[in-house]
């Protein structure tokens, strides 16, 4: 009787009875308010609205550019009811933080979309343009604190690439890392840092309310709906897209991987997701299966090369 009771408790605490269609948990490996959190919750709404999945939850695991969340995620076991949001930021953090695990230890599901980074300052900042800031930056790089996400992430890489193009040694950049875009915003508004770097959407509301001013956006060409010139338009030859995608834990079966891929693909075809792309100024870039896995391998190599070049 005791053994039977223990078995019942174990069964009630396991996910053996759940399927990806009945229950799904998405790990956002950053603090609430950041880009991964936003993408996770937008996807959550798309999955709920069309009843693609019965119960969808988002769990935040912030820290170290997503590598803390990654480390916990790969230890979940072959659970097909779990996925994690990832992207360019994590690739850089894996290398800079010398993470014991990387995206090769996960099961790639789908790349969803790309968005872009901005350099941002408070509305009362003396810097009206990117070149205004660069002129001051060149005189004394270390005296100008730059706030962004985890070390080696997209924010850090963009700051380093911009410094290099401006003739500043990237190692001289006074870069202060935070757990997510929400924390960068708080630091910027409290004058803890002089300039912020993060996804446009981390700052969108404050930009529209006139509390912040965007100096430059990291796209190759102007982005519809974003009234901010690119770095390239302002004479700084830098562009850096920030992709967002989903991976599953290692060890799931091919059938389970296909089911998750189908679920995500269905979500990207909903009106809710289309609205999310428009509102957030994201560029759709759906890629699944082995093609996505190969993209991750190539993009990780690209990010590693940038980090080596910058000496970060």
In short:
The chain is of the alpha/beta class and 312 residues long.
Structural account:
β5 (145-148), α6 and β6 form a beta-alpha-beta unit. Residues 1-15 have low confidence and may be disordered. The chain is globular and about 60 Å long. Strands 1, 2, 3, 4, 5, 6, 7, 8, 9 and 10 form a 10-stranded mixed beta sheet that branches. The protein has 312 residues and is an alpha/beta fold. The protein has 2 domains: 23-115 and 241-310, D-Maltodextrin-Binding Protein, domain 2; 116-234, Periplasmic binding protein-like II (D-Maltodextrin-Binding Protein, domain 2). The termini are far apart. Helix content is 41%, strand content 21%. It has 11 helices and 10 strands. α2 packs antiparallel against α10 (271-279) and α4 crosses α11.
Write out key terms for the chains shown.
D-Maltodextrin-Binding Protein, domain 2; 10 strands; Bug_dom1; alpha/beta; 312 residues; 21% strand; BUG; Tripartite tricarboxylate transporter substrate binding protein; globular
* Biggest sheet descriptor: 10 strands, mixed
Q: How many strand segments?
A: 10
Number of domains: 2
CATH fold type of the largest domain: D-Maltodextrin-Binding Protein, domain 2
H/E element sequence: HEHEHEHEHEHEHEHEEHHEH
Give the low-confidence spans.
1-15
Number of alpha- plus pi-helical segments: 11
- Give the terminus-to-terminus CA distance: 60 Å
> What is the CATH superfamily label of the largest domain?
Bordetella uptake gene, domain 1
What would you call the structural class?
alpha/beta
Query: Roughly what is the average pLDDT, rounded to an integer?
Result: 91
Helix proportion: 40-55%
CATH class of the largest domain, named Alpha Beta
Please report which band the strand proportion falls in: under 5%, 5-15%, 15-25%, 25-35%, 35-45% or over 45%: 15-25%
CATH architectural arrangement of the largest domain: 3-Layer(aba) Sandwich
User: Oligomer, anyone?
Assistant: single chain
**Rg, nearest Å:** 20 Å
Shape estimate: globular
